From TrEMBL:
InterPro entries linked to this entry: EXORDIUM-like
Protein's cellular compartments: Secreted, Extracellular space, Apoplast
Transmembrane stretches, start-end: none
Predominant location category: secreted
Keywords: Apoplast, Secreted, Signal
Protein name as catalogued: EXORDIUM like 3
Region forming the signal peptide: 1-23
Family: Belongs to the EXORDIUM family.
Length: 342
């Protein structure tokens, strides 16, 4: 174990004593002010503490989960370089791919498949890439609100040429905004979110997610650990496995949102907390945790690629990705296929 990580490991234990540790990102208001680790031996404690079950009361609220094959329809909003699109498509394709070696993206999805609906049917194993729409000319401007995001989706499904198909049962609509697009709450509170569209705006109830490229706006927050915020001195960013810091950060956020959409598409299925307007969902519980021992600013045990690359999952075409873990409802902690003790 890297010495710095021993410190972080201990720090994690301190953080786990407070519920705020449940979803860690380097948001400024949560800047750690207790970074002096105690010298206790981390190996003396249980290894299974990724996430904390003490504060977590994840419950099923009887709504649907996505048990039918999922088709992801992507909207590329703004200027999207081809290599960046390829990285994200490869990640999405990897979710159901069986060829990549362990630990794989499909192994990661196995945790999401543990969630079931009222009939006992599991979340599907199959995630297909659907149609794509390019919104190259920023149809709703370079600054979007939560509501105007729905208008972008409406434009994509009502476009005169090649509209996206309307698929409320098993379609997921993924809006990806380029580096130069501002979005309400982006960087301050969120790196992405999911919800469903309102019939009054879009004409249908469609589960959708938005994820933004934070590359120039707040990489230290939304592309951590490939970028590190200034207020954490001495922490070196990891090299991104696919070459672009902002896109690399998006991959984990896309994984987060799709996992939550699958288990809570209409925000009435799997979540913790009393308030359905601020549900804590299966990926929120494990934000910032990518490997064994993860928590706080420590990602957990990762795998090393060349030139400082760090990753935890294998994908199609020899790609590597770093994707946060997911809350495991059977084990009652966060889990992923790269756990060193599984
Ligand atoms: C961290 O700082 C906040 C605000 O200054 C304070 O309320 C909180 O008690 C501090 N946490 C610890 C563990 O010292
Ligand atoms: C379906 O979910 C149940 C309950 O979590 C789990 O025991 C079972 O292994 C899951 N099946 C698959 C194929 O993942
Ligand atoms: C769902 O996907 C599987 C491949 O994983 C395929 O064999 C099956 O035909 C699909 N089902 C539907 C209804 O499209």
């Amino acid at each position: 174990m890297h010495p710095m990580h021993i410190g972080r490991y201990t720090f994690t234990l301190l953080l786990l004593l407070s519920p705020s540790a449940l979803a860690w990102r380097p948001w400024l208001p949560h800047a750690p002010n207790t970074t002096t680790p105690s010298p206790s031996d981390p190996l003396g404690v249980s290894k299974k503490y990724e996430g904390s079950s003490e504060f977590v009361h994840l419950r099923y609220h009887m709504g649907p989960v996505l048990t039918a094959n999922i088709t992801v329809h992507t909207i590329w909003y703004g200027h999207w370089p081809v290599p960046h699109k390829r990285t994200i498509r490869a990640f999405l394709r990897s979710v159901s791919a069986s060829e990549p070696p362990h630990p794989s993206v499909s192994g990661w999805w196995r945790t999401v498949r543990l969630y079931t609906d009222q009939t006992g049917s599991n979340v599907t194993r199959t995630v297909h890439l659907g149609e794509e729409k390019n919104d190259r000319f920023y149809s709703h401007g370079r600054s979007l609100t939560r509501l105007s995001i729905q208008s972008v989706i409406r434009s994509a499904i009502t476009a005169r040429t090649r509209p996206l198909p309307i698929n409320p049962k098993s379609g997921l609509y993924l809006l990806l905004t380029s580096v130069d697009v501002r979005v309400q709450d982006f960087c301050g509170q969120v790196c992405g979110f999911h919800y469903f569209t309102f019939p009054s705006i879009v004409g249908y109830t469609l589960p959708y997610a938005w994820v933004g490229n934070s590359g120039t706006q707040c990489p230290g927050v939304c592309a951590y650990p490939f970028a590190v915020p200034d207020y954490i001195p001495g922490l070196k960013p990891y090299a991104p496995p696919n070459g672009d810091v902002g896109v690399e950060g998006m991959v984990s956020v896309i994984g987060h949102e799709i996992a939550e959409l699958a288990s809570n598409p209409l925000v009435n299925a799997w979540y913790a907390g009393q308030d359905p307007s601020f549900p804590t969902e299966i990926a929120d519980l494990c934000e910032g945790i990518y490997g064994t021992g993860g928590g706080g600013s420590y990602t957990g045990q990762l795998m090393d690629g060349r030139r400082g690359v760090k990753y935890n999952l294998n994908g199609v075409g020899g790609r590597r990705f770093l994707v946060q873990w997911i809350w495991n409802p059977i084990l009652n902690y966060c889990s992923g296929p790269n756990a060193i003790d599984q």
